[in-house]
Write a structure and sequence with these properties.
106 residues, mainly alpha, two-stranded antiparallel ribbon, 44% helix
Length: 106
């Protein structure tokens, strides 16, 4: 295995960072599932049990470890979530390829 694809140690047993997976953002170990998705659901008020129902491939320990990772890296994770949910920046980075016609009708 090359050093570029080797997971970076996060200090959390169920969370890893790999350079070429999700842009190096933290994910559930052995998957492409971003920790930020779990955090966003939790912030919206979903309980761990509800997140498990929403994503049955996850295990309770993985969700709890993702939450623990968040609290250990809160500023970094908050910044990541802000960047991921900034629609204006996303539209500038990935402008739409189809634009509505300007025929005067709305």
């Amino acid at each position: 295995m090359s050093t570029q694809s080797r997971p970076m140690d996060t200090g959390h047993p169920h969370v890893e960072r790999r350079p070429h997976v999700q842009g190096g953002r933290p994910v559930i170990r052995g998957s492409r599932f971003p920790v930020s998705s779990i955090i966003q659901d939790y912030r919206r008020g979903l309980s761990v049990e509800e997140i498990l129902r929403e994503f049955p491939s996850l295990r309770p320990a993985e969700i709890h470890d993702a939450l623990s990772y968040y609290y250990d890296h809160q500023a970094e994770m908050d910044q990541e979530i802000t960047e991921l949910t900034n629609l204006d920046a996303t539209m500038q980075q990935y402008p739409p390829t189809i634009r509505p016609s300007d025929d005067g009708r709305h």
